[in-house]
Amino acid sequence: MNAARIPSQIACFAVLFLLCATGKSQTLTCAEIQGESDVSPYDGQEVTVSGKVTVYFGDVWYIQDDYGPWNGLMCVGPNVIIEANPPWWSEPRQPEVGDVLQLTGTIVETDGNTQMMQITDYVFNDFWNATPAGTGVTVEEMMDESLEGTRARLDPVTVVSAPDGDVWTVSDATGTLTVYGLDTDDPGMNEDGDGPTPGDVYRIYGAVRQIGEEYVLDLSDIDTLSLVTGVEEQFGMALQLTPNPAHHEVRISGLAQPGTWRIFDALGRSVRSGMATGSCTVSLQGLLPGRYTVHVTAAGETARKPLIVN
Known about the structure:
The protein is mainly beta and 310 residues long. The chain has three domains: 3-126, CATH 2.40.50.140; 135-228, CATH 2.40.50.200; 232-309, Immunoglobulin-like (Sandwich). The protein is built from three helices and 18 strands. The strands form four sheets. Strands 1-2-3-5-4 form a five-stranded mixed barrel. The protein has a five-stranded mixed barrel with strand order 7-8-9-11-10. The longest helix has 17 residues, at 6-22. The protein is elongated, with a radius of gyration of 26 Å. The protein starts with 5 loop residues before the first helix and ends with a strand.
């Protein structure tokens, strides 16, 4: 063997060893980082991943490299700054929805949530890419580890509690969900003067985040379906629901003639029904908190009123 070639061969092997040891020889997928388990197999390790930003909150944003379960990741990177790109944007900025990034950082499990932190290197590849609406789920279906870090869509949900700061709750027929964030750019959110109001019905989009045993939604977009101030329909009947909001039971009154009543949930499913003459008291035991609609029909006329169960 030529002795002069030994140093160069040793150097090549050393470079290959360092690349493998640092984990930078390949780009992992979000699903590989998530590991399809509660704790990432890369917890505490530095890795590289590439994806599209789906939801952002300044220093914190979410990326996906595919859509559906296991394909999302939460990233924390105050040092990740995208340079100015006139005429599209004139000042440096943080990542926004539609940006395509390659990131190198450390995977950390925090309060049940898989995150990329301590980002040491990043490459900005593209911007303004379209992002799908996300996986359509119910509240119950969203409570799943496989959706953590991914974009989800709930449609429809009813506001149960008004925002305390930027934290509020919604429900559908399957459960109640905590939402973080307000879409102040959506005119429907402010049409009734004070943002989400108990009884308002929305379609909401956002990223699923785990906090201990709970899954919450970091809000990105919202569509107004109906506001509590505009959902009542009256057809000649002085229908009254008391109390409203209600918890254990509600009294239906105002019927001039015998009739039938029916309660529908936010998904349009009948959950209670019966007969009434003048007035009656209806048990709400077993109904989840949220928005319902009471339909009363008598003498060929129908009246509808919203009912909030808390």
